[in-house]
Specification:
single chain; alpha+beta; nine-stranded mixed β-sheet
Length: about 300
């Protein structure tokens, strides 16, 4: 059985994850790399929105939450057969003072989504003049860091552990396992984020990945973009070198790799060295992955 589905995704959005505020300035979450600042969306924020989409758009029940007196956590009697969230993203349940709790590691692993364009100290200036003008109260000034960019993140799923929980002796049938993986893929395909009165589209513009015998997220940290006048290109070198990597039984990464893309976004997709039969528009990419999942769980 090919055990791991790994997908590296590019999307475009802006002002997605704020951290601490100082005075009247709201700061975006940022990290430094090669002497430059890049904004990012934490994996926790991505997980929140994926679960929210699964609930709001596809009616997945949310896992009930309780407390052991110290920390907020999933209820001890919540099990993966009823709640796909903890099947996919894991849980930790404590069972009282001095007792060993139950832990199920996440089957779906997410990276942070990191911008592919550096942040250049852009700041939005705002006020509440619309409300202040109705009264004799003072106007309030506020500032927010802003950044619109392409972002990339990677998701890896350990397929053989979907629907299985030794803690509660659960092993779901293959039909339900397929249904849950498809639910996750459908949520990724239409992912969006509500923040500060805006709705930002996080759906994929480009995806590269596939189903492999090992769990390495092959294209994580391999995605870079180059920008020219009215043109965006991938840095193809790291991608093509990764495709030629031999990882097990003389198999190359490219043997199981597919790409999906929205036409007109990235100019040099033809330079990615995989067969044209493995290059799809975005809808057909998800269909091809779902078909492969069906084959695996026969």
């Amino acid at each position: 059985m090919s055990n791991f589905l790994t997908l590296t995704i590019i999307f475009k959005a802006g002002n997605l994850n704020y951290g601490e505020s100082t005075g009247n300035i709201s700061a975006l979450k940022k990290l430094s790399f090669k002497g430059k600042s890049y904004t990012y969306i934490s994996r926790q924020a991505l997980r929140y929105d994926i679960v929210r989409i699964m609930n709001e758009e596809f009616s997945m029940p949310l896992t009930p939450v309780g407390s052991d007196g110290k920390v907020v956590q999933f209820e001890a009697n919540a099990k993966i057969d009823k709640y796909p969230e903890i099947d996919l993203f894991g849980y930790m349940k404590t069972s009282g003072e001095g007792n060993k709790g139950k832990i199920r590691k996440a089957i779906v692993r997410l990276s942070d989504a990191i911008s592919l364009e550096q942040w250049n100290n852009d700041i939005d200036y705002g006020n509440n003049m619309g409300l202040a003008a109705r009264t004799d109260l003072d106007n309030m000034i506020f500032q927010s860091e802003i950044h619109r960019s392409f972002y990339t993140y990677t998701m890896t799923i350990e397929l053989k552990k979907i629907g299985i929980d030794p803690n509660d002796n659960i092993n779901l049938d293959n039909k339900e396992k397929i249904k849950r993986i498809n639910l996750l893929l459908d949520s990724i395909k239409i992912l969006y984020r509500d923040i500060r009165g805006r709705r930002e589209d996080l759906s994929p513009l480009f995806i590269i990945g596939g189903i492999y015998e090992v769990g390495n997220p092959f294209f994580y940290n391999k995605i870079e973009l180059n920008f020219g006048r009215d043109i965006t290109k991938l840095n193809i070198g790291p991608i093509n070198e990764t495709l030629e990597k031999i990882y097990i039984d003389d198999k190359k990464v490219k043997d199981n790799t597919k790409i999906g893309y929205v036409d007109g976004i990235i100019a040099n997709l033809n330079e990615i060295k995989i067969d044209d039969k493995n290059k799809f528009n975005m809808e057909d990419f998800f269909v091809s992955i779902k078909n492969k999942i069906k084959e695996i769980y026969k």
